[in-house]
Structure prediction request, 436 residues.
Amino acid sequence: MNKHGLFKNIASLGVVQVANLILPLISIPIISRIIGPDKFGVVNYAATFIGYFTLLIDYGFNLTATRRVAKDPNNKELRDLVFSEVLYAKIFLFLISIVLFIPCVLFFEPLYLEKKVAVFTFLTCIASLLSQNWFFQAMQDLSKVAVLNFLSKLLFTIFVLLLVRQKQDYICMPLITSLVAILVGWISYYWGIRKYNIILRRISLKKIFNLLNREKTIFFSTVVINLYTATNIVVLGIMQSEESVGYYTAAQKLILISIGVINIPLAQAFYPYIGKAFGKSKEEGLQTTQKIFPWVIILTSISGVIMYLFAGIGINILYGKDFKPSIHVFRVLTLVPLLIAISNSFGIQIMMNLNMDKLFFRITSSGALLGLVLNVVMIKWLGYIGTAWNWLLVELYITITMYVMLKKQGINPISWKEFNLIRLKHYIQLMFNKAK
Prediction:
């Protein structure tokens, strides 16, 4: 993939993600005022909990399967094999998820008290089973990912605004989310099969187990990352009220939108591009990462400053006066996208492409352990604001640790000379010229 393809991917993802930003800004002000902080917390709590099952079904394939195909994307036999393995593995993991979900909804009080919300939210697991975004990413065909993401946001916004009219309609939100996600997931599956002429192979249960065993390190890494992000909300819901969950998740949702608009397009576009550079040589991969790194820092830093300065105005406009406590949470979290962007460069772009999976797992595991302990302490001390500080401190710890460990391995992830304004200007002009 040349710089023209890279620029096209970033541009297509960026433009659609801006649309993905605008659509929630249309729906959030209306929905939050209708259902209030308590039901807003209920819906987000269920989504967070069901996130464990979607995490299991995805099994880190967006990294491992993407990496396998991206190294030789023109190899049709490899594409068919990996596509089939991932699909059958997801079906197996989906069945396991159903078995695990039933006792959770029957015996875990927060889910039992809102059974309909839990069941409707669980349907998103079907969408995870069908989604082939990992495959489009591996094929560096990210315009498809962008279109599918936009379609899901558009349909959700339309149906939510039509159907959620009073407080008790909060139950409709997870159902709409799931049905839209399933539709888009099916389109993703059909699109991938047809465009790349995928021929599904029969995959035995033994091969599925071998695949899951082979990729378990990355999967457990995604699990531990979830422990210091999503699990914060689960613990908060156990220790505090529904309103507290609503205040925290309202701010977190805006931060996640920011990450979706800036961090995710950059990460998705750069991962296969950098991976191909590493495929040529370690030196070329590192040089490519170092050249890209300043732009990641600049974009996320600017967005962080803007979010901090306009936090009060933004929360009041989007959520209303009932969500005023979310302002402090939001300001604490405005540094998180920058830290995630840096750790993504160190961990995903460098460590993953150099097959340093075990080191990545050790670092994220230690961060997760720190987060679990710190979260309980911080919630007791500061309530829902403590949850925000916990996420920030854990991201800071992981970012610093990744940098230190890479340096110990003799790898320099940052080239400060690339921050030279003349170099930056020259590099961006080169990318634009290639894109013409």
In short: The longest helix spans residues 3-58. The CA atoms of residues 224 and 254 lie 23 Å apart.
